[in-house]
Automatic annotation (TrEMBL), chain B:
Pfam families: AsnC_trans_reg, HTH_AsnC-type. It comes from the Bacteria. This is Lrp/AsnC family transcriptional regulator. Keywords: DNA-binding, Transcription, Transcription regulation. One of its GO terms (cellular component) is cytosol. PANTHER family: LEUCINE-RESPONSIVE REGULATORY PROTEIN, TRANSCRIPTIONAL REGULATOR AZLB. GO terms for molecular function: sequence-specific DNA binding. One of its GO terms (biological process) is response to amino acid. InterPro entries: ArsR-like_HTH, AsnC-type_HTH_dom, Dimeric_a/b-barrel, Tscrpt_reg_AsnC-like, Tscrpt_reg_AsnC/Lrp_C, WH-like_DNA-bd_sf, WH_DNA-bd_sf. Residues 7-67 form the HTH asnC-type domain. The keyword Calcium does not apply. PROSITE patterns: HTH_ASNC_2.
Amino acid sequence: MTAPTLDQLDRQLIDILAHDARVSNRKIAADLGVTEGTVRGRIKRLQQDGLIAFTAITSLRLEDSVKLAIIGVQAEYARLRPIAEQIAAFPNVDAVMIAMGRFNILVVCLFSELDRLYALASDQILVIDGVHHVETSIAVKTVKYNSRVVRIAEAERVVDADGG
Amino acid sequence: MNDNFVLDEVDRAIVQQLRDNGRATNQQIAETLGLTAATVSSRIRRMEDANKLRVVAVSDFAAHGYNMLMQVAIEVDGRPATEVATELAELPEVFAAHLVTGRHDIDILIALHDSDELPDFLQHKLAPVRGIRTIVPSIVTDVLKYKFDVAPIEAREGE
């Protein structure tokens, strides 16, 4: 991915909105000493370039004892992409990355019951043609997690931003 | 502050609207759900005050100039894994650090500006952390899916 150039104002906008996305354009404009039109235009461009997205984050800690698991998948190299796409299509999977390392697909999922995790790893992923091996690690404690910096997938990119 | 309340159906419907568009106005959400804007506003504030909800802008790694993602599995020896993970978490390049079950003890997600930074990171940032026995890095070459709407929420500073 080519790195787009962000100026000081873009960074200030991202900082403000990363803290609270529901601040009005008017207040942002007043705080940064620019016009509302500038704020609206900048936000729209950042969204269109896939550099920011607005969302609601709910608490992992409080949501029905949800746990995070990382599933490493060793898949046949020639069919890596279609296999990864098949895994990404599962609704109970939260992240799918193609990687170079001991595993060539990394899967992240949130689960609340161990049975469900087992079912995902064994009955959904391991049975895919071309998947040779699956290894599951459960996060027993999360020491750091930056939920504000992410990879914005294509599907998230175009959301209308006229908030105000 | 009562942060033990359970989200009801109205709360969940509002959260869903905000997931679709975090910048939707209270009035827009109210119209969609058949509520008043005041109800929407107070429900959102209640969930935020209880640290159950944050409505935020998330930014792409690329927006910060990070073009290389790496996941590293770490095996620890001679030092509690929590201590090692806490020390790793202080590195700005580390975006997530989990203590995990399985073959390794710690799993971290690292973002670097480009591959030129890799040798320096491995030799001068990772290697000096006491207690690391082995590391198994995986370089992420493609991200097909990355959902980010459930996360640990800490209280906001100053609250």
